[in-house]
Amino acid sequence: MADSIAAAAQKHPAPEGLIYQYGTAGFRTKAEVLDSVMTRCGLIAALRSRALKGKWIGVMITASHNPPEDNGVKLVEPLGNMLQEEWEVLSTEMANKATPEDVSKFYHEIAARFKIDLDAPARVVVARDTRASGARLLACVLDGLKGAGAEHKDYGFLTTPQLHYMVRCLNTEGTKDSYGTPTEDGYYEKFAAAFKTALKGKKPSGSLTVDCANGVGGPKLTELIKHLPPKEEALEIFVVNDNVIKPEALNVDCGADYVKTNQRAPPSSKVGPNDRCCSLDGDADRVVFYFKDANNMFHLLDGDRIATLVASFLGDLVRQSGLSDSIKIGVVQTAYANGAATNYVEQHLKLKVDCTPTGVKYLHHAAEKLDIGVYFEANGHGTAIFSVDTLETIAKHEPKSTAQKEALEVLRACIDLINQAVGDALSDFMLVEVVLAHKSWGPQEWLSTYNDLPNRLLKVIVNDRKIFQTTDAERRLVKPDGIQTKIDQEVQKVRQGRSFARASGTEDAVRVYAEAATKAEADDLARKVAEIVKSFGSA
Ligand code: G16
């Protein structure tokens, strides 16, 4: 019998001299060099499904916040989690095999190593964002799936969190843990209904303008709105930057990454003072809020702010429901979290903070160890997850008063509103609106909970970013030798200074973060650390 694995790999040969790596969020690089990687990811997805006795595995084709000419692929585990680390390593090895024969050999080696029955069913769900290269790369994935004899469902265009939702729904369908109906309508109905229940008749003040980064979030939000209560009863939403007909506009001068990095609204923004705005990224798995005050000053309400808002609200609900003795909340952040946010959580909310390396997979993993784990990266990626025991405690709890009953109802609705599979910009922004409506807060009240330390994020292009190796949840560099001492010397020169540098896992760059007592000091520190990185990176 002909070797269908080698044949699939043969159809999409690997370009010579390139090394691929399953990074922070899958493989991500220029779309033109990704064909072979896609086919091989199809093979890995099929193997992963077989290893899990035919459970559905997800393949999402997206490069999220990256520029339009990039693309990428992430694999999704049966409950909607990120791919297990051991399989990331296998994916990297598979992506770098030189010849079709090597690919086939490695495919069979994996099967032997994990005792995978190659006749077992393999089921894979695929979806993509709106990038121009998506259709071609999807065909490459499908060739891999066909070569491996896997069954597949193609959902066409979806946001990344919708794909995670589908995977979880398909794997829990018909069980007591059923997560929902695995259709787009099922997604909209579930989250829209939870939004309505969680609001409990409270109407958010004003409107919300949602910048969709000209990505897949635009059309999907438009669909979601059709399922939400009418604007007279709930929230008025204005959808902007939703042009997916022009793929070259994706993430350009708009979107969550633009707003967070530049600390300014998209230049096209036309909102008035104190109008709430939020920006999604290209695949709608992150969101940041912002507004301009009466003096036309821009204020960012980023992932740290969402985490503190959500943690304090869930804490209130747990207390008001009479559950504070049995449920503890914790917050998970990364080194990018503003020092003031960490302080606020520890000192004011009196909650435990864990710090992990960048990457949703790390935060999610740390949050899983908590009863309620609220995790957000400053860039707006995140969600809150509830342990199985906590869900059971909340489901079984008998309220002892009307006040407890009402709080419990909102808490239960929030559980449905929060996408438990992965951080989801659409679900997250609705959660924020619910909290603001319950607190009768506008953006100004939200902002006034604490004062961010001025900060600056820079990108430095170097010859080889892999030489920058970190420790202590990416807060310190261990390589190149001597670089951390130089950074420390600069940090000590400014008041409330903190800075770190780390290689990006999604772009060919080193990221530098700095914060300090004043904007000038933060900018200066970031610039100095960037210079240090540059000098070591060009050596
Ligand atoms: C991905 C990851 C995030 C991470 C971001 C930037 O986001 O899912 O966890 O914060 O990349 O990572 P890095 O600094 O390593 O480039 P996205 O929205 O691009 O998928």
From TrEMBL:
<dbReference type="InterPro" id="IPR049023">
    <property type="entry name" value="AMG1_II"/>
</dbReference>
<dbReference type="InterPro" id="IPR016055">
    <property type="entry name" value="A-D-PHexomutase_a/b/a-I/II/III"/>
</dbReference>
<keyword id="KW-0479">Metal-binding</keyword>
<dbReference type="InterPro" id="IPR005843">
    <property type="entry name" value="A-D-PHexomutase_C"/>
</dbReference>
<dbReference type="Pfam" id="PF21404">
    <property type="entry name" value="AMG1_III"/>
</dbReference>
<feature type="domain" description="Phosphoacetylglucosamine mutase AMG1">
    <location>
        <begin position="182"/>
        <end position="288"/>
    </location>
</feature>
<dbReference type="InterPro" id="IPR016066">
    <property type="entry name" value="A-D-PHexomutase_CS"/>
</dbReference>
<feature type="binding site">
    <location>
        <position position="285"/>
    </location>
    <ligand>
        <name>Mg(2+)</name>
    </ligand>
</feature>
<dbReference type="GO" id="GO:0006048">
    <property type="term" value="P:UDP-N-acetylglucosamine biosynthetic process"/>
</dbReference>
<feature type="domain" description="Alpha-D-phosphohexomutase alpha/beta/alpha">
    <location>
        <begin position="57"/>
        <end position="86"/>
    </location>
</feature>
<feature type="domain" description="Phosphoacetylglucosamine mutase AMG1">
    <location>
        <begin position="302"/>
        <end position="441"/>
    </location>
</feature>
<feature type="binding site">
    <location>
        <begin position="377"/>
        <end position="379"/>
    </location>
    <ligand>
        <name>substrate</name>
    </ligand>
</feature>
<keyword id="KW-0413">Isomerase</keyword>
<dbReference type="InterPro" id="IPR016657">
    <property type="entry name" value="PAGM"/>
</dbReference>
<dbReference type="GO" id="GO:0004610">
    <property type="term" value="F:phosphoacetylglucosamine mutase activity"/>
</dbReference>
<dbReference type="Pfam" id="PF02878">
    <property type="entry name" value="PGM_PMM_I"/>
</dbReference>
<protein>
    <recommendedName>
        <fullName>Phosphoacetylglucosamine mutase</fullName>
        <ecNumber>5.4.2.3</ecNumber>
    </recommendedName>
</protein>
<comment type="function">
    <text>Catalyzes the conversion of GlcNAc-6-P into GlcNAc-1-P during the synthesis of uridine diphosphate/UDP-GlcNAc, which is a biosynthetic precursor of chitin and also supplies the amino sugars for N-linked oligosaccharides of glycoproteins.</text>
</comment>
<keyword id="KW-0460">Magnesium</keyword>
<feature type="binding site">
    <location>
        <position position="283"/>
    </location>
    <ligand>
        <name>Mg(2+)</name>
    </ligand>
</feature>
<dbReference type="InterPro" id="IPR049022">
    <property type="entry name" value="AMG1_III"/>
</dbReference>
<dbReference type="GO" id="GO:0000287">
    <property type="term" value="F:magnesium ion binding"/>
</dbReference>
<feature type="binding site" description="via phosphate group">
    <location>
        <position position="64"/>
    </location>
    <ligand>
        <name>Mg(2+)</name>
    </ligand>
</feature>
<comment type="similarity">
    <text>Belongs to the phosphohexose mutase family.</text>
</comment>
<feature type="active site" description="Phosphoserine intermediate">
    <location>
        <position position="64"/>
    </location>
</feature>
<feature type="binding site">
    <location>
        <position position="281"/>
    </location>
    <ligand>
        <name>Mg(2+)</name>
    </ligand>
</feature>
<comment type="pathway">
    <text>Nucleotide-sugar biosynthesis; UDP-N-acetyl-alpha-D-glucosamine biosynthesis; N-acetyl-alpha-D-glucosamine 1-phosphate from alpha-D-glucosamine 6-phosphate (route I): step 2/2.</text>
</comment>
<feature type="binding site">
    <location>
        <position position="511"/>
    </location>
    <ligand>
        <name>substrate</name>
    </ligand>
</feature>
<feature type="domain" description="Alpha-D-phosphohexomutase alpha/beta/alpha">
    <location>
        <begin position="96"/>
        <end position="174"/>
    </location>
</feature>
<keyword id="KW-0119">Carbohydrate metabolism</keyword>
<dbReference type="Pfam" id="PF00408">
    <property type="entry name" value="PGM_PMM_IV"/>
</dbReference>
<dbReference type="Pfam" id="PF21405">
    <property type="entry name" value="AMG1_II"/>
</dbReference>
<dbReference type="GO" id="GO:0005975">
    <property type="term" value="P:carbohydrate metabolic process"/>
</dbReference>
<feature type="binding site">
    <location>
        <begin position="502"/>
        <end position="506"/>
    </location>
    <ligand>
        <name>substrate</name>
    </ligand>
</feature>
<dbReference type="InterPro" id="IPR036900">
    <property type="entry name" value="A-D-PHexomutase_C_sf"/>
</dbReference>
<keyword id="KW-0597">Phosphoprotein</keyword>
<feature type="domain" description="Alpha-D-phosphohexomutase C-terminal">
    <location>
        <begin position="457"/>
        <end position="531"/>
    </location>
</feature>
<dbReference type="InterPro" id="IPR005844">
    <property type="entry name" value="A-D-PHexomutase_a/b/a-I"/>
</dbReference>
